[in-house]
Fold this sequence. Notes:
disordered N terminus, Rossmann fold, six-stranded mixed beta sheet, four-stranded antiparallel beta sheet, globular
Amino acid sequence: MSEPQSVTETKTESEPTTRTDATGAIDIDHLTKIYDPKGEGVVAVDDMDLHIEAEEFVALLGPSGCGKSTVMNCLAGYLEPTEGDVLVDGDQVTGPDPKRGVVFQENRLFPWKTVQENVEFGPQMRDNIEDGRAQSILGEMGLEGFEDAYPSGLSGGMQQRAELARLLANDPDIMLMDEPFSALDALTKEIMQKKLIEVWERDNRTVVFITHDVEEAILLADRVVVMTARPGQVKDVIDVDLDRPRDPEIVTTERFTELRERALSVIREEAQRALEQEESV
């Protein structure tokens, strides 16, 4: 099925609610995660510290295997730290919570449910269905008219819109996004980036966004956190001092180029170190 040319705004009786309370502050305190499936003791993340302000948009960059997804899974509550703490608004993360919504590279939509049923699933599990909310969010995502479609009948970009709609239906304080747009074509990726920023700016949510795309990280984020080769630690934190809103043309500016080169320089250094680690095994 072909991709719609643009994402349209659709107003219904139940508009997505604008959030006003500053919640979703994250503290990663001396986080260490060791995988030990065969007694090998692989240290994925080692003594990592990071503070993320409520409502901040932070991108995680780093070479493959540096522990970005491990950090994300600890934040989501899918993994328990070996040592250290992960806190949200001062409370220990002890397991998954709908207030920390997750979007992965590959959608996790239920193939046997329609788009609307997928979006309503989370609120139904908590007996928290608001009449008209699912239709409103789907309209916002440009999926009006596809409520009764099944995921297999949607393009990749539309599936990711439905995944984002499902996350928003749970009204999370924190959006955890693990390379959500990496499989999309350039135009669809740009549409999804714009939609994500619109949602973030309107709803005051905290976003932690994993990507391998340096330009995407700088275009979207308030700060870019560059991780070391495994075991993962914070190598550099880049403040993205570019005015918002940011049009795609900003990638041609001198300041954007400076930020990109700084990030690339750090990543190249760590990627080379990761390669040397592999060759020494």
